[in-house]
């Protein structure tokens, strides 16, 4: 009997299950708990995992690693100073996966046919998905595929309660929130939409307790420095308070009140006046409810956004399935239902909220064709063909029903006197002989959950058996089947708008909501030549997200760079076609391949990002601050153009405020990761506002350039150039109401015309351009040559030789990247769609 494995690699707790086609088996921790804490503890005797490691978090936090899933895919170090060890988040995740896999019996672990599904949040980006897969590989797990957590929860919900209708899965764990909307019809599930928040879970509730309850109490009751968390003497105190707060929070799931407690003998620290420090803080449900209210409202907003995208009304939702540890807190469930306008009777509590994701992953693992490297799902259609004659039996090879149909297809060379017979090898049932006619069909009963095996016989006109290439067919009765899984993010390639354009946009090859898996091919052309063995590269910068303008406000997935070292001869010339083949798996994981048909070359298996270049969330403060300044300015500019203070922009500003507050007060890796997410959320809100107020913003943009032309450019323009500008302005005005980028293209042309007029007629503009490029010196492609050119330019300024200065500016511009990239792993944009 085959076994299929599902692993829920959680932020706080992890679990592992198997499915044999009939029953789920949960493999418990050595302490006989359903879940294993995702924790690692190191001392001189070795490494410890799970409950034992988690208990040591309070006593020796500098030897313990927890919540590293929130940092997976980044270069943030996990420093265990007390043990003198530094790990990566990927390494920590790999160790937990190895521990979980070790719970399985030897016969399962040594079976090379066994496949394992590891779950990831829907909100995970490509970097995080890839890091999870590599962590599983490093753990020594054999065949592995990824699956999105809300889909796994849907699988379990359907196995436990297969009733028809539309239901909603609300899954909030230790670190992430996921939502899924699914429709069940006769055991088959269609996923209508899913989404989530990458940094929202029990760990965030714990931080709220620490920052708003525990830290103020300690400051009020003991003599501590203002920022005592930065003081080495008290380095462990905040971790102790966090641990105590988490336990009090969990206790409130069963009681109305609890205590955040840790004794002075266990803390073993004195304050600045020599008093023993202890923690003894009363906590009740109303206090916790008030603290987490804002974060729960964020999850409700995510649910509504997903419903809106799927075009589903809450009135159509028949039940809500709650998954994850925090949902064991009844006031949270009640609050969510109230905010969504749902009756509490619609709550489905039939699932184990702690293990449902692992169970669903194991069920899903059975549907994967593990013989294929792509880890695609098994086909639901089977066919058994005649060995020599033109006939075949077509049948459902996978179904959730207790019956399946098989039908005959045959050509003209099969005699009408031929017959066939189908026997069940499981029950002994036989169909008896039936004429082998085109369209003849038979309904087969499937007595077994899992595989049902039948033998097919064909007889000629004399009753003699006809040889078949294969005689047995297997029909699997599955617990649940899921149709296409909608993409939770759009994926696109950054391209130039035209060969000579300075504008860029994102060309989406997968749109949010499109059904996965999906594979396809897109055609692009390079705007630059690339010689074999030469310098330079052709760049495919891949982004994830739905923001149209600016496109680089989306999350950068990575860059496929085709270099001169990747081929041995010939030249890829400007305008030559390049084929971009992509495949997006059920999990949302992307793989790409690029080829140059004219050269007969395929650049297969190219990494589309450089490992190790993800954010170090301990060193993110400067980036968050600089990005926030840019976004604050954007918000102010939009408000000026629309002449109001819209609630969407208020939310955008609030997200930036929260990001800055986090990095200024917390200064740890978890806060850094959260701050980066808040900045991204602000970008999305700004894009939403720009879309909502598209017309007034465009009017403001057009008024702005017209005023600029009138005040600063007009005096230097010829009559022909003035007429050209007026024609462009007229065309832009006519395109204001169009839901395309035509207006932005016209505006871009108008700015280029203004720059061209000033460049040839206004010396001050040339000087300003030189000063601008001089300040960008570290971004040049040749720093030595840049310094020489700057010196030449300064000499030209002293001499008042503007024509010489123009030539210097041209030369400097030639060694500057054509696109100022905001991320180290992206390349310049030198491809167009075509």
How many distinct beta strands?
Answer: 41
Largest sheet: 6 strands, mixed
CATH architecture of one domain: 2-Layer Sandwich
Q: Which segments are poorly predicted (pLDDT under 50) over 5 or more consecutive residues? A: 818-824
Helix content: 25-40%
The rounded Rg comes to 31 Å
CATH class of one domain reads: Alpha Beta
The end-to-end span amounts to 51 Å
Q: Which percent range describes the beta-strand content? A: 25-35%
Q: DSSP helix count? A: 20
Structural class: alpha+beta
Q: Would you tell me the overall average pLDDT?
A: 88
Overall geometry comes to globular
Describe this structure in words.
The chain has 834 residues and is an alpha+beta fold. Among the domains are: 4-201 and 293-366, Nucleotidyltransferase, domain 5, CATH 3.30.420.40; 381-477, Immunoglobulin-like (Sandwich); 610-692. The strands form eleven sheets. Strands 1, 2, 3, 4, 10 and 11 form a six-stranded mixed beta sheet that branches. A hairpin with a 2-residue loop joins strand 13 and strand 14 (188-197). The radius of gyration is 31 Å and the shape is globular. The chain starts with a strand and ends with a strand. Mean pLDDT is 88; it is low at 818-824.
């Amino acid at each position: 009997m085959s076994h299929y494995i599902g692993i829920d690699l959680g932020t706080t707790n992890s679990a592992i299950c198997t499915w044999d086609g009939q029953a789920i088996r949960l493999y418990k921790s050595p302490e006989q708990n359903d879940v294993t804490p995702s924790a690692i503890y190191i001392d001189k005797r070795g490494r410890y995992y799970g409950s034992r490691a988690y208990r040591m978090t309070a006593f020796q936090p500098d030897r313990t690693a927890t919540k590293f899933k929130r940092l997976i895919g980044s270069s943030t170090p996990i420093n265990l100073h007390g043990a003198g060890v530094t790990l990566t988040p990927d390494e920590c995740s790999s160790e937990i996966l190895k521990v979980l896999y070790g719970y399985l019996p030897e016969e399962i672990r040594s079976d090379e046919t066994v496949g394992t599904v590891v779950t990831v949040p829907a909100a995970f980006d490509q970097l995080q998905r890839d890091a999870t897969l590599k962590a599983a590989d490093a753990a020594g797990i054999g065949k592995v595929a990824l699956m999105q957590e809300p889909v796994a929860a849907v699988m379990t919900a359907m196995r436990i309660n297969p009733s028809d209708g539309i239901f909603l899965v609300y899954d909030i764990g230790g670190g992430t929130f996921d939502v899924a909307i699914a429709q069940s019809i006769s055991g088959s599930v269609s996923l209508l939409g899913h989404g989530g928040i990458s940094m929202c879970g029990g760990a965030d509730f714990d931080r709220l307790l620490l920052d708003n309850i525990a830290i103020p109490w300690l400051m009020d009751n003991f003599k501590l420095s203002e920022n005592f968390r930065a003081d080495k003497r008290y380095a462990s105190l905040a971790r102790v308070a966090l641990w105590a707060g988490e336990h009090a929070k969990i206790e409130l799931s069963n009681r109305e009140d609890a205590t955040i407690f840790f004794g002075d003998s266990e803390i073993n620290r004195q304050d600045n006046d020599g008093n023993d420090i202890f923690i003894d803080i009363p906590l009740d449900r109303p206090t916790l409810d008030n603290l987490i209210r804002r974060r729960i409202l964020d999850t409700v907003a995510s649910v509504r956004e997903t419903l809106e995208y799927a075009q589903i009304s809450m009135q159509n939702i028949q039940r809500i399935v709650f998954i994850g540890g925090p949902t064991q807190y009844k006031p949270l469930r009640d609050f969510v239902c109230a905010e969504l306008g749902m009756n509490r009777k619609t709550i489905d509590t039939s699932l184990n909220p702690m293990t449902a994701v692992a169970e669903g992953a194991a069920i899903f693992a059975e549907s994967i064709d593990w013989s294929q490297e792509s880890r695609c799902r098994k086909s639901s259609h089977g066919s058994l063909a005649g060995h020599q004659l033109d006939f075949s039996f077509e049948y459902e090879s996978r179904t959730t029903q207790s019956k399946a149909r098989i039908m005959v297809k045959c050509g003209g060379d099969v005699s009408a006197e031929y017959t066939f017979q189908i026997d069940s090898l499981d029950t002994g049932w036989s169909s008896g002989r039936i004429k082998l006619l085109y369209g003849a069909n038979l309904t087969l009963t499937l007595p077994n959950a899992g595989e049902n095996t039948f033998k097919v016989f064909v007889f000629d006109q004399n009753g003699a058996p006809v040889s078949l290439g294969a005689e047995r067919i297997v029909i699997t009765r599955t617990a649940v089947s899921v149709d296409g899984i909608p993409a939770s993010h759009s994926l696109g390639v950054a391209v130039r708008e035209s060969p000579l354009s300075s504008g860029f946009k994102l060309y989406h090859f997968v749109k949010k909501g499109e059904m996965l898996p999906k594979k396809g091919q897109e055609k692009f052309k390079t705007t630059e030549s690339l010689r074999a063995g030469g310098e330079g590269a052709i760049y495919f910068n891949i982004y994830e997200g739905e923001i149209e303008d600016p496109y680089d406000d989306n999350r950068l997935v990575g860059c496929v760079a085709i270099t001169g070292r990747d081929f041995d001869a010939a030249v890829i010339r400007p305008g030559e076609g390049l084929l971009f083949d992509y495949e997006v798996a059920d999990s949302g994981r992307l793989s790409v391949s690029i080829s140059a048909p004219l050269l007969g070359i395929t650049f297969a298996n190219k990494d589309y990002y450089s490992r190790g270049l993800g954010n170090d969330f301990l060193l993110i403060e400067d980036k968050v601050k600089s990005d926030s300044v840019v976004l604050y300015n954007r918000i102010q500019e939009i408000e000026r153009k629309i002449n109001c203070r819209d609630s969407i922009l208020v939310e955008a500003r609030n997200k930036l405020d929260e990001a800055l507050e986090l990095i200024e007060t917390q200064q740890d890796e978890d806060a850094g990761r959260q701050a980066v997410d808040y900045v991204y959320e602000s970008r999305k809100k700004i894009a939403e506002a720009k879309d909502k107020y598209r017309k007034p913003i465009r009017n403001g943009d057009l008024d702005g350039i017209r005023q600029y032309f009138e005040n600063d450019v007009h005096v230097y323009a010829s009559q022909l150039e003035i007429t050209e500008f007026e024609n462009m302005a007229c065309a832009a005005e006519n395109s204001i109401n169009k839901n395309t980028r035509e207006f932005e293209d016209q505006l871009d042309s108008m700015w280029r015309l203004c720059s061209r007029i000033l460049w040839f007629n206004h010396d001050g503009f040339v000087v300003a351009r030189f000063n601008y490029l001089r300040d960008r010196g570290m971004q040049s492609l040749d720093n030595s040559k840049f310094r020489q050119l700057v010196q030449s330019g300064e000499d030209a300024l002293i001499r008042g030789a503007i024509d010489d200065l123009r030539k210097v500016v041209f030369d400097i511009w030639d060694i500057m990247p054509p696109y100022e990239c905001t991320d180290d792993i992206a390349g310049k944009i030198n491809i167009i769609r075509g």
